Amino acid sequence: MKAEQTLSASRKFLMHGSCTNEDISISQSRESASGIPEYIVEIVNTCVSECAPYDIHLRCGWFASARVINPRLFKRLSYDDCLVNGGKPLGFSKMIRFTYSNSFLYPLAFKSANFCSTPK
User: Fold this and answer.
1) In which band, very low, low, confident or very high, does the pLDDT at 2 lie, cut at 50, 70 and 90?
2) Cα separation of 21 and 42, whole Å?
3) 36-82 pLDDT tens trace
4) Shortest CA distance to 32 belongs to which of 109, 83, 91, 105?
5) I need a surface site. Which of 16, 30, 38, 76 has the fewest CB within 10 A?
6) Does the keyword Signal apply (predicted)?
7) How do the domains of the chain map onto residue ranges?
8) How far apart are CA 52 and CA 40, in angstroms?
9) Terminal-residue alpha carbon distance, the chain
10) Residue 98 has what DSSP assignment?
11) Are 57 and 114 contacting, i.e. CB atoms less than 8 angstroms apart?
């Protein structure tokens, strides 16, 4: 019984840990070899928490794409400010994935998000 209680307590601790910007994983890869280059972007929340980060913004320069991107997934609001998932929470292991077309890859980096704070 004690082992089960310890396991339950450790699960509870993991589920109530606080998330940080390091829990938002951003990766890009080139998809096409001819024509206008296409890049696949994947944004994943790796934080195990009951409270998902929301209002996630990335640094994105003058991000633009020849291919239309669903603005509910990713939208440039102004220079160097792009909104992910329409500002909605991005749950644990959930992924936002989209493809954009441009002659070069735009560097994308975490800018800000709202994270739940946990009671101590």
Assistant:
1) very low
2) 15
3) 899 999 999 998 877 789 999 999 999 999 999 999 999 999 999 99
4) 105
5) 30
6) yes
7) 2-114
8) 23
9) 26
10) E
11) no
